[in-house]
Amino acid sequence: MDFLSQHQPEMLPGKRQLPPVQGVIEAPHGTTIVAATFPGGVVLAGDRRATMGNVIAQRDIEKVFPADEYSAVGIAGTAGLAVEMVKLFQLELEHFEKVEGAQLSLEGKANRLSTMIRSNLAMAMQGLAVVPLFAGYDVDREKGRIFSYDVTGGRSEESGFAATGSGSIFARGAMKKLYSENLNEQQATTLVVQALYDAADDDSATGGPDVARRIYPIVTVITEEGFRRLTDEESSEIARSILERRLEQPDGPRAALL
Amino acid sequence: MSTPFYVSPQQAMADRAEYARKGIARGRSLVVLQFADGIVFVGENPSRALHKFSEIYDRIGFAAAGKYNEYENLRIGGVRYADLRGYTYDRDDVTARGLANVYAQTLGTIFSSAAEKPYEVELVVAEVGETPEGDQIYRLPHDGSIVDEHGSVAVGGNAEQISSYLDQRHREGMTLAEALKLAVQALSRDTNGSEREIPAERLEVAVLDRTRPQQRKFRRIVGRQLSRLLAGDGTGAESEAEAEGDSEDSAGSSGGAGGSEDEK
């Protein structure tokens, strides 16, 4: 990136001159991303909807990307800018790895993403914010970790679970009641899909599982073995089993009162 | 008053070429061979940290003999070129041919500029294709010319002898273990024709493996896997190596940007 900023600065996000604008720019926005850790790894999942105002801009957008072998990033906010940011982020991690012959630490990757969000601050002030969620497996500490960000690039590490995007308040509420520290991988994937279901239930900008079109949330798992994205069959199975139960209990599983 | 000493351009170029060739000849040789599933790089390298081979991009590998600081400089330049290309256009638009051209320009300019000393390096840029016919191997000598090679290529000190040895014995569709053994045999031959033993710890081996599910096809072969491939009698070692490759590949199977250089 340092090389790029000297060589072709116009290629970098945040280095472009912005025309003065009045009002809100209409551009597709991605919505809800959720993540949860479990012993041995972390899951990161996102719904499939992009909205533009009250219109659904895209039904099957992909908002969770592998950043490198041991980390992934899920994006909420202006889709076009976010996808570009992820592309540059992936490039930078790969470039570092090839030039130095070693991977960046997870902490280093998280800091790098923070700087990239901050460089987008001018756009964010005009309503084109990008707020990702970063999750990865820390090879040194041997555990999954989650980092959340705000529009100014402020970074905070989350313990247990986190969510970002318009449906995040509902998703976080759901996870708060369902999360426990000793979930296994399969339970953790179910947890995040439950949380996305609850987000879609209450937030119009978040898409639920679309059985008719076979569009299901993207669920990724990062463990010691590296990044893995659940196949469509696997994620449809999770979504369908949840749907099945919700036909009887529309509000989902109940937590104990006391 | 002394008159400036006249040196004919031919003589000046010949001197520079001689200088560069001597520098390269001091370095250890390395060989690059095609095999059934890709391209293998084999060289003698006592250092574990300073690599002779490295990944440039998804399907492109780099090998160099000669002076370390000079080829490392070129390697980083190549990684930058490839990453910038891939980011600007698409990952598919980064080709070995394009990269070889950039290297040829750089080496050629340095070689003919009177202000700089010529680089004492010889490079190999290889790209693995979907099929063996799609494989490309380019050899770039110190003066900036490009040689399009097929089958096998050797660069470094003893290159001519090694490449004639390889030309006679290399055939298409070899397994990895066969290709590796042939390469080691070729490297162990001394200038005077006698053979010496190169232990596995002193070998640096990397492959561009077209069967790898990840986007990035470059993989180093180290440790147990290497000794097994060298010791095995061909087929057995090959299938074991594949089994290991599979378990390791499942790590980042759908990871587009996954696949690390130092996996093990």
Describe the structure.
The complex is a heterodimer of chains A (258) and B (264). Chain A has 258 residues and is of the alpha+beta class. Chain A has seven helices and 13 strands. Chain A has a single domain, classed as Glutamine Phosphoribosylpyrophosphate, subunit 1, domain 1, CATH 3.60.20.10. Chain A has helices at residues 2-7, 79-100, 106-118, 121-125, 168-178, 185-202, 232-248, and strands spanning 29-30, 33-38, 41-46, 50-52, 55-58, 64-68, 71-78, 130-138, 143-149, 155-158, 161-164, 218-223, 226-229. In chain A, the strands form two sheets. In chain A, strands 1, 4, 5, 6, 7, 8, 9 and 10 form an eight-stranded antiparallel β-sheet that branches. A five-stranded antiparallel β-sheet of chain A has the order 11-2-3-12-13, with helices on one face. Chain B is an alpha+beta fold and 264 residues long. Chain B has one domain (25-251): Aminohydrolase, N-terminal nucleophile (Ntn) domain (Glutamine Phosphoribosylpyrophosphate, subunit 1, domain 1). Chain B has a five-stranded antiparallel β-sheet. Chain B has a five-stranded antiparallel β-sheet with strand order 3-4-5-6-7. The longest helix of chain B has 21 residues, at 68-88. The radius of gyration of chain B is 19 Å and the shape is globular.
Calculate the terminal CA-CA distance of chain A, rounded to whole Å. 52 Å
Uncertain ranges of chain A = none
Biggest sheet strand line-up of chain B:
8-1-2-9-10
Which of globular, elongated, flat, extended, rod-shaped describes the shape of chain A?
Answer: globular
Count helical runs of chain B. 7
What value does the Rg of chain B take, in angstroms? 19 Å
Secondary-structure element sequence of chain A? HEEEEEEEHHHEEEEHHEEH
- Rounded mean pLDDT of chain B is 84
Distance between the termini of chain B: 66 Å
**Mean pLDDT across all residues of chain A, rounded?**
90
Quaternary structure state of the chains depicted: heterodimer
Strand content of chain A: 25-35%
Mind describing the biggest β-sheet of chain B? 5 strands, antiparallel
The percent of residues in helical segments of chain B reads 25-40%
Q: Let me know the largest β-sheet of chain A.
A: 8 strands, antiparallel
